[in-house]
Amino acid sequence: MPFTRLATATTPTCHLGLGLAAVGRPGYINLGRDQDLPDDRSADAMRHRTHELLDAAYAQGVRYIDVARSYGRSEEFLAEWLNAHPDIDDVVIGSKWGYTYTAGWTTDAERHEVKDHSLQTYERQRAETDQLLGTRLDLYQIHSLTPDSPALSDKELHARLAEAAAEGLTVGFSTSGPAQADTVRAALAVTVDGEPLFRTVQSTYNVLETSAGPALAEAHDAGLTVIVKEGMANGRLAAGQAPDAVRAVAGETGLGADAVALAVVLRQPWAGVVLSGAATAGQLASNLHAAVVDLDEDHLSRLAALAEEPHVYWERRARLPWH
Length: 323
Known about the structure:
The protein has helices at 4-7, 33-36, 43-59, 74-84, 119-133, 155-166, 180-188, 213-221, 244-253, 257-266, 281-288, 297-304, 310-318; strands at residues 16-19, 64-66, 92-97, 99-101, 113-115, 139-145, 170-175, 191-192, 195-196, 200-204, 225-229, 273-276. By secondary structure, the protein is of the alpha/beta class. Strands 1-2-3-6-7-10-11-12 form an 8-stranded parallel β-barrel, surrounded by 6 helices. A hairpin with a 2-residue loop joins strand 8 and strand 9.
């Protein structure tokens, strides 16, 4: 398991990771994006921003980087950064397959990505990822499993994923939607030759969406590394958008609303890696303060009261515009 590298790290930020969804393509659904990024969102401009973030993250102790085939040119930008820093050999790299980026480097495409969990898509995207990241890839995840995904029952796909695992690649999955807990439990039951197939799970969990928590605890107890995405709820928990309770706790702790939101996730005993989706170096620095936020029981109680029903949370997320 590549995540054993993080287990020996001692920096406060070693269990915080950097996700490149927000900077690998010009359009995304995060709130406040127009303020976070320059008007110039050419490939060169986004490459520069990505490399700037990777430099800052590594300097501040971050050792897990998250990309995906559908995050525009995120794998390409990361590969360029890795090639420019051949001395850096202690980062863990995870990518995902199952969505194809279709926006053509625009922000107003009718569809930005197309989901397909077939074996054919796995083979095509695995080859594309290998061409860019090669042996630097540690973890390959099925992108956004849901209970109806054919990837949960495709035995031929399972066999191919097991072959990749036998060759040293860690195999995992991510989840999305209001039935994340059901998806996690279904994936835990997938075996090949009597052995569990998946070794990691990446799910959405934040103070507004906590429904996957018990299932993620089960996954952790089963030996999987749990990676948490969208701890900032696509910007809904940032300072300008955060509920009053989050801002109040932030004021009492002397740190940002974003740090408070991510600190709640870091406190979960099953959380192995918590992702920052920062789009600026300043946001990243603020996010990383999550490692030192001191939350007491009163703080946690007030924040726990913010949880929404899963279908309400995901319906609102589905309405967020790409910009």
